[in-house]
Amino acid sequence: MTTSSYKKVFKQLKVKPAKLAKFIKHNAPKERKFGRSTKKCKICGREHASINKYKLNICRTCFRDIATKIGFKKYN
Is the whole-model pTM more than 0.85? Predict the structure, then answer.
């Protein structure tokens, strides 16, 4: 269950506060301490394909956009 789909049920359970509280207790996504989902891109928030080398912490698509601005050169 993704974060966005977990909140879609709130509309249905709005009139039943006890069931809503129980649903949130058992189905809310837990805070991640390690793994892929903790390393998000600083610019766009993407979790996959992140470049953490040199403490960049950005994804590959954002890196392509700003690589020349931060001093990287493209070699053939």
Answer: no
**In the predicted model, is pLDDT for residue 7 greater than 50?**
yes
Q: Is 7 helix (H, G, I), strand (E, B) or coil?
A: coil
Would you say how long the chain is, in residues? 76
Domain-embedded: residue 5: no
Percent of the chain exceeding pLDDT 90 equals 20
Determine, yes or no, domain membership for 49: yes
Whether 42 contacts 23, CB under 8 Å: no
**Count of the separate structural domains present in the chain:** 1
Phi, psi torsion values for 72, nearest 5 degrees: -85, 145
